[in-house]
Amino acid sequence: MQSQINPTNVMKQKFFFLAAAALLFAACSTKQASDSESSTLPEADSSDFVTLTEAVPDAILEIRYYSTYNFIGSRIEGYLQPTALLTRQAAESLRQVSDELKAQGYRLKIYDAYRPQMAVDHFVRWGKDLDDTLMKPYFYPGEVKDSLFIKEYIATHSSHSRGSTLDLTLFDMRTEKEVDMGGTFDWFGRESHPDCGGDPETGTYRQNDTLTAQQFENRMILRRAMMAHGFKPYDCEWWHFTLRNEPFPDTYFTFPVQQL
Q1: Radius of gyration, alpha carbons of the chain
Q2: Annotated catalytic residue: which of 54, 191, 237, 246?
Q3: Tens digit of pLDDT for each residue in 187-201?
Q4: pTM value?
């Protein structure tokens, strides 16, 4: 005897199948949207950045936070390769700086440029660990570690993470040596301030026991070229400059430092 097919049961089966398929599609669509959103968060987007040496091919890179020779004494989180990144606008302005200084016999030497927020977080954790003073003799012999936050040598956010700030010095093509600035990069102390040894606004040297007239003038050569092409200096560090019209003044990027 042949079994009878119940049309009502068939319709119910079709309904349940379509409903289940719809739920599965909706779930997949939600996951894809979520994945898309997480991958395109503004602070994770490096599409407006370039590798610095693409804009300034003859720049010398000495990326201190990729190495262990820095004020912490270990590689800093977020530095996956010894390269330097900048926003396109900052890189273009830096190329103009390089062109001007090359005519005077100098090349640019870069210590740091874009710095991911995870690196800044690493600095903050280190700053709170008062027992870790491994590199104190080399970078902050005259400072008590718990004063580094008060004096703003370390902060929870850095202009570097906005992508248009860099730390640099000059390299003399004639002597094939780094120019003597009377102080080293990342030295936590009064000697690093641009006004140590004179008035940076007028370029006038002031006799003192810290900088010679030539060392002060060397700092001014770098400062004048950077300011002439749209960068502004920082009051506490002669090597630190930020593009005045930076494209991302409120975004602290999180992607790591590596070749783009």
Answers
A1: 27
A2: 237
A3: 999 999 999 999 999
A4: 0.85
